[in-house]
Design brief:
- The chain has ten helices and 14 strands.
- By secondary structure, it is of the alpha+beta class.
- It has one domain (1-333): Peroxisomal Thiolase, Chain A, domain 1.
- Strand 5, helix 4 (98-106) and strand 6 (112-116) form a beta-alpha-beta unit.
- The longest helix is centred in the last third of the chain and has 23 residues, at 225-247.
- 51% of the residues are buried.
- The structure holds coenzyme A (COA).
- Coenzyme A (COA) binds at residues 36, 40, 44-45, 120, 159-160, 163, 198, 223, 225-226, 228-229, 232, 260, 262-263, 290, 320-321.
Length: 333
């Protein structure tokens, strides 16, 4: 297990954008597909519905719309972007990277581009990577995108997973902050020993795609839900507290907590441990489900656009995902 903490010069999020597909899949719809019910799903997860991408809509298509909206809100031209990082576990294809696809779609012809694999923690990993790149002094404007077509890796016959996930994309523009605005502290962790608890087994070099892997349904998400739940609560709680300590802040100083949107019971457990009032939580999982790497940027964009998040607000992000991976970040908006 590793956990790295850092404080440095402040790098800010100067624009955000998001995209959700049109099609809504409700709990009642799911109850016609697997043995489940609206009552069970709402009680165990807090989710009511989620969005599902069109068949011809890939992760890069959604990511490109979110990216364009983020650039517009930052007042930045696509040609000014130095680097595009796409956090995704549902890339368009194994290669080229989804980041390169998005570069082409948005016309960011001066950027270099790569994908980052940290599942549901990917967006925060991307932000931390961007922070390091901008701090190096070489790159000025970085686009970090979390985009997922989770429906493409969901086993619609597995009621333990298919109720949880949705499709969507969010993006943020990162640049040097002014007057102290920006990232105050970060804590990033990984524990590869627990990888088996949440994975997509086939389609990589370990188990290449074959007729047998398709028949065995190995191209879908496999999860030990209970174990993931426990580790998610523990890792996000501890990382959040460490990030606050590093920033020299108390939980009472925080205006907004933006957690990964995995399950309302996970979010409530974290809030209870940290004594965070529920009105300080930014939550959208009841409408969109778990968007994996896109969860945090989508809920962030919603809170910025509806005016909840104001300049100067202190935000605490906490994330957790397959790997296991996790992280926390304190940022002054
Ligand atoms: C998946 C999750 C919602 C399941 O909730 P849970 O409270 O842990 O439920 P359990 O897995 O213990 O299952 C309890 C019972 O409900 C049943 N069940 C599971 N899914 C069900 C569903 N969709 N509808 C109805 N019943 C269901 C189980 O079969 C089990 O029945 P049993 O007691 O007869 O064996 C929950 O574990 C979770 O959210 N885990 C974390 C997932 C996550 O965050 N993943 C992404 C990481 S970023």
């Amino acid at each position: 297990m590793s956990e790295i903490a850092s404080v440095g010069i402040r790098i800010a999020i100067t624009g955000t954008g998001a995209y959700l597909p049109e099609r809504v899949l409700t709990n009642d719809d799911l109850s016609t597909m697997v043995d489940t019910s609206d009552e069970w799903i709402q009680a165990r997860t807090g989710m009511r519905e989620r969005r599902i991408a069109r068949e011809d809509e890939a992760t890069s298509d959604m990511g490109a719309v979110a990216a364009t909206r983020a650039l517009e809100s930052a007042g930045v031209d696509a040609a000014e972007v130095d680097l595009i990082i796409v956090a995704t576990c549902t890339p368009d294809m194994i290669f080229p990277s989804t980041a390169c696809h998005i570069q082409e779609l948005i016309g960011a012809k001066n950027a270099f581009c790569f994908d980052l694999s940290a599942a549901c923690s990917g967006f925060l990993y991307g932000i931390e990577t961007a922070r390091g790149m901008i701090t190096s002094g070489v790159y000025k404007t970085v686009l970090v995108i979390g985009a997922e077509k989770m429906s493409s890796i969901t086993d619609w016959e597995d009621r333990g997973t298919c109720i949880l996930f949705g499709d969507g994309a969010g993006a943020a523009v990162l640049q040097a902050g002014d007057e102290g605005h920006g990232i105050m502290s970060t804590v990033m962790g990984s524990d590869g020993s627990l990888g088996d608890l949440l994975k997509l087994p086939a389609g990589g070099s370990r188990t290449p795609a074959s007729a047998q892997t398709v028949e065995d349904r190995l191209h879908f998400t496999k999860m030990g839900g209970n174990q993931v739940f426990k580790h998610a609560v523990l890792c996000m709680s501890e990382a959040g507290q460490k990030a606050l300590d590093l920033a020299g802040l108390e939980i009472a100083d925080v205006d907004w907590v933006i957690p990964h949107q995995a399950n309302m019971r996970i979010i409530n457990a974290i809030a209870e441990r940290a004594e965070v009032p529920l009105e300080k939580l930014c939550v959208n999982l009841e409408r969109v489900g778990n968007l994996s790497g896109a969860s945090v940027p989508v809920v962030l964009d919603e809170a910025v656009r509806d005016g909840r998040i104001k300049r100067g607000d202190i935000i605490l992000f906490v994330v957790f995902g397959a790997g296991f991976t996790w992280g926390a970040m304190v940022l002054q908006w």
